[in-house]
Specification:
The chain has about 300 residues and is α/β, with parallel strands linked by helices. It contains ten helices and 13 strands. Strand 4 (about 55-60), helix 2 and strand 5 (about 75-85) form a beta-alpha-beta unit. Bound molecules: adenosine-5'-triphosphate and 1-O-phosphono-beta-D-fructofuranose. It holds the Pfam family PfkB. This is Tagatose-6-phosphate kinase.
Length: about 300
């Protein structure tokens, strides 16, 4: 079974603008509200791949109720903890040339609500994969993912973590199946800058040394890298009209993990993950299976090392 944990889901309010002027009133020419949050996006792509998952997390207040309504259209299996404070609304501002995101902090989670979540976690078993993604809402300390990762690994299941900074570094010792920083997050993690691909591969190898089993480095329109104990692979990002790249990284994780669970073929998982990422970038919302399969044909994986 696959579980996704989105500690901080969101309503993604995507506004299309002809141009964005800071310090002025900007009027949208179009808008859409999507049920967002990284783990939710992962669950939605897994569903496209025909894989069931249960989405876990905290949902709260009137915005939480609206979030549930938005999500109900997708018929995902969910088991959220209801909290008192409001689920956040994340603003995604898009013009023809750039995307600007403003993400809310998320609800305050009380100690009792956190406890309810931890007690709710199903005993995981061997073969389960738990994908933990995104920022943590207010009041949840950086240990939150570590606590859950400890529980998952003690029970013989695997975990994947897609978050940034210390919360990511702390869980590496427990051997996540894969981590997927983008190249900016990876540079920030080691307080460095990259001058070339080799610098990025070296930084990815540091994550392997710290315990990650596989490292995906996403680089938006420049494609992605997969670095494993033995090899490094690169893939291209095909050309296409970028409509909304929000969720491209989550799609990549879903494609990689979903394919890996079925095939244990790293190169194929990387190829399919990249197809999911690019296909989502070319869609208003997340990609569908036919979008993904079309984009897959346009991606080549090259072994670098
Ligand atoms: N403009 C693009 N054109 C083609 N492919 C893209 C584009 N943007 C993203 N992708 C594909 O999706 C993958 C993941 O995208 P990206 O690096 O933006 O992830 P991310 O920063 O985690 O995004 P998010 O947090 O919005 O999910 C990239 O490695 C690439 O394969
Ligand atoms: O603030 P976080 O949790 O880091 O990211 C949240 C978010 O930007 O990630 C998803 C795209 O990856 C969006 O659906 C959502 O708004």
């Amino acid at each position: 079974m696959i579980y996704t944990i989105t500690a901080n889901p969101s309503i993604d309010y995507v506004l299309q603008l002809s141009q964005l002027k800071s310090g002025s009133i900007n009027r949208a020419i179009d808008d859409v509200k999507l049920p967002g949050g990284k783990g939710i996006n992962v669950s939605r792509i897994l569903q496209q791949l025909g894989l069931d998952s249960t989405a876990l997390g905290f949902i709260g207040g009137a915005t939480g109720t609206f979030f549930t309504t938005l999500l109900s259209a997708h018929q995902l299996q969910t088991d959220f903890v209801r909290v008192k404070d409001d689920t956040r609304i994340n603003i995604k501002l898009k013009t023809a040339t750039e995307e600007t995101e403003i993400n809310g902090q998320g609800p305050a989670i009380t100690t009792a609500e956190k406890q309810t979540f931890l007690e709710k976690l199903t005993p995981f078993t061997q073969g389960d994969v738990v994908i933990m993604s995104g920022s943590l809402p207010r009041n949840l300390d950086n240990n939150f993912y570590l606590e859950i990762a400890q529980q998952i690994t003690q029970q013989g299941a695997e975990f994947v973590i897609d978050t940034t900074g210390q919360a990511l570094l702390d869980t590496l010792q427990l051997g996540p199946l894969v981590v997927k920083p983008n190249h900016h997050e990876l540079a920030e993690l080691f307080a460095t800058t990259f001058n070339n691909l080799d610098d990025i591969i070296q930084a990815a190898k540091r994550l392997l040394q710290l315990g990650a089993k596989h490292v995906l480095v996403s680089m938006a329109g420049d494609g992605a890298l997969l670095v494993t104990e033995k090899h490094a692979y690169q893939c291209n990002a095909p050309h296409g009209q970028v409509k909304n790249s929000v969720g491209a990284g989550d799609s990549m994780i879903a494609g990689f993990v979903g394919t890996y669970m079925q095939t244990h073929d790293l190169q194929e998982s990387f190829h399919y993950g990249a197809a999911c990422g690019s296909a989502t970038a070319f869609c208003e919302d997340l990609a569908t299976l036919s979008d993904i399969n079309e984009v897959y044909q346009k991606i080549t994986v090259t072994q670098l090392q």
